[in-house]
Amino acid sequence: MRATDDAVRIDEIMSTNVLSVRPETPVSEVAELLSKHRISGVPVLDSDDVPVGIVSEIDVISRSGEIASDIMSHGVISVTEETPAEDIIEILGSRRVRRVPVIRNGKIVGIISRSDLVRLFSITRWTCADCGYFERGFVRPAKCSECGSEAIALHREPPGM
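Below the sequence we write its predicted structure tokens.
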């Protein structure tokens, strides 16, 4: 469990076992991969493992084409491991995407989805050191809503609590 003072980062909850496809992967194989692994999208990587697109469920069912590059969304929106969760929430909302690849040195090291952020929200607490009151969220409150103290610390609950 890592605690920071100002923001929640996503590198501790991103999925690191990222399934991907190549631009020449047949659409039928992409659809099978999405269905088999119960995921809603997959990055498309070139021969140097650099992301060149994303194929989502909606691309599979609404676009025509034989291979991934025919139906993929171009212009990959990505983040880094240091990107605060609040920034990723803004990206997901304003760009209307469901997942973003996490990039290090031009290569995918993970992927963060809306469900990953919901899971992070469910285990994140900003706890007042003075009265014990806590709030959930991705941004550190300036002060405790209960007692007004500024002694706020980031804690993670074990899953299932």
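The chain has a mean pLDDT of 89.
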